[in-house]
Amino acid sequence: MGRIHFGGDYNPEHWPEEVRAEDIRLMQEAGVSMVTAGIFSWALVEPRPGAYDFDWFGRVLDDLHGAGIRVCLATMTASPPPWLTEQHPEVLPQDADGVRRWPGSRQHFCPSSPVYREHAVRLVTELATRYGTHPALESWHIGNEYGCSNPRCYCDVSAADFRRWLHERYGTVEALNTAWATTFWSQRYGTFEEVFPPRTTPTFPNPAQVLDYARFCDDALLQCYLAEKEALRRITPDVPVTTNHMPLHKPVDPYAWAAHEDVQALDFYQDPYDPETHVGAALAFDVTRSAGGGRPWMLMEQAPSAVNWRARNSPKPPGTMRLWSWQAVAQGADAVLYFQWRATPGGAEKFHSAMVPHAGTDTRIFREVRALGRELAAVPQLAGARSRPEVALLADWHSWWALEQGSHPSADLDFAETLRRHYRPFFDAGVECDVVPPDRDLSAYRLVVVPNLYLMSTETGARLTEFVRAGGHLLVSYFTGISDDCDRVHLGGYPAPLREVLGLRVEEFWPLAEGQHLPLTGTLTGSGDLWSEAIDLEGAEEVAAFGAGELAGRPAVTRHAYGDGVAWYAGTRLPVAAMRALVDRVRAGAGVAPVLPGLPAGIQATVREGAEGRFLFLLNHGAGTATVTLPEPMPAVAGDGVDPAAGPVASVDLPARGIVVLRA
Ligand code: GAL
Fold it and tell me: Is residue 560 part of a domain?
């Protein structure tokens, strides 16, 4: 992108046209270089079916261009206009009980609806035809947060589309019956016509059906995106396309979508009331960057201050908006944008903060926005640089969909929470991570972490085994490698695809009662909770054992030297300190060092490397000033208490919420 872009959602339709001159002036003052425009403009640009009123929108683009502001142009399809659903009520989505979702909000469309897609593509074609060569156009922003409010529709249109999708996937109804194990509970199907979406059932639905429905629903959303993308590509083959994802959003698999996006875009709303908010953000940023194979990505939305959709909406205390924006840049973002430019007086988001607040520009928020915009404008050399983590965590949306269903040994398994727990010790230690899907090439990593990957194909098991044989280090946690892609259990002792590399067999799961803790004995201290299991060693050595309960004396954590590498296994959920101790040992064996040794608590350190050099980012998420001693003197690029014009510095004093970027 050539620079670190700065800006936000621009919704000029909320205001009389005269306001725009001031908008543009203020954008320039604030260093705004990019806006995404038109996201919810459908009803205004197409007030009647096929009748367009684009004049006002064209003037907006012209004015932005005149001010040198690039536009990531939205395709306007996230909120269908009232005429569409009035004329075609079948476009409206239905929940699993058959209850219809009505217009009056947004995203009130069934993703499988051909009527919705046809109207959306018609609008997008019109947009691309009109503005495809507009000089302000930088990229296309397709839809908006797919699946935020309509992740799953269970209507008859969806049912028919699901049957088509199943037919394509399985070919014959016999193959479907086998995949879904429909001999169980008399579910055998004679034709595809007999199959329904997993609407509300008297008791547990077929788990493979639920899993396939999650796959289908994600795919239906993706097909909406692709229908628009195809129209855009036909008319503007060289203009990049993207869509903004929500963080760790269960219905939408970011890895599947990434293949169809030219740049990854994420919306992340840090919660000032959550002391761990920056850790959750770090994980989501790493997922986003990894989905794009490491290329620079866009933070497409964040709040300048408070949001309006939590139960209690804290403003961002002074300095945190800057810190959390720099955090995205430190983790690979080349664009930092907000929702939204100017706070509206009406509508459902009137109490959401904006870059220009209700109180105007003589405000803390605008001053902080302006300062950050100027700061980011001064560091174009950072753009394009990439990080190169040596650790990968595996995440798999299909496994997530299969894991969190009823009828399992425990209802307490929560994939996102487990992923965070495995990510946290690396973040705390200053070790950068990628978060990749299981089919990624793992050869560039020294260490691969596999948290609770319930669904695992035999091929993935074989690849992980090979990874260790060739010298890689592997850390696997409980209830991993249990079922295949159709959610059928791998027989012969759990986790069958990994038994050889882990050197063990799990004979029986022993999930723990609520609040139950089992003390650990051996070389890890603390106690496991949530889960335990009966492990038989088959070559692995015991690192820690259960010190109480029915499994007292049996292994809880193991280590197996295999080929040229080592495979570790945790058969219980470890508390934070024990997890940290385990990860430190695993890392030491794998030769994975933090970005800087001896980082003070609360300091995040990352490296981005590119054509313009190698840059070290230091961010202080802690409450007090911290001194970071550098391994060698480095010139400063930007940040607090440093002068880029002065010579190299040997250490930095980072105030709370401070940031520094150095040339490493
Ligand atoms: C996002 C959405 C934006 C705006 C924002 C408010 O989910 O994409 O349009 O609603 O939330 O935080």
Answer: yes
* Euclidean distance between CA atoms 78 and 100, whole angstroms: 18
Task: Tell me, yes or no, whether 113 and 239 share the same domain.
Answer: yes
Are residue 295 and residue 361 in the same domain, yes or no?
yes
SS (H, E, C) 458-473: HHHHHHHHHHHHCCCE
| Burial (CB count within 10 angstroms: exposed 0-12, middle 13-18, buried 19+), residue 611 | exposed
CATH of residue 607's domain is 2.60.40.1180
Cis before 600? omega within 30: no
What are the φ/ψ torsions at residue 219 (nearest 5 degrees)?
-65, -35
> Region 213-242: what's the mean pLDDT?
98
13 carries an active-site annotation: no
- Mapped onto helix, strand or coil, the DSSP state of residue 553 is coil
301, 375, 500, 533: the catalytic one is 301
For ligand 1, atom 11, name the residue with the nearest CA.
339
Mean pLDDT of 154-165: 98
Among 46, 126, 138, 145, the one annotated catalytic: 145
Q: Give 99's pLDDT tier (boundaries 50, 70, 90).
A: very high
Whether residues 529 and 398 share a domain: the answer is yes
> What is residue 193's DSSP assignment?
G
Domain range for residue 321?
Answer: 5-152+222-382
Q: How many domains does the chain have?
A: 3
What is the distance in A from the centroid of ligand 1 to the CA of 332? 22
DSSP label at residue 188? -
301 is annotated as an active-site residue: yes
- Whole-number pLDDT of residue 1: 79
Q: What is the CATH number of the domain that holds 138?
A: 3.20.20.80
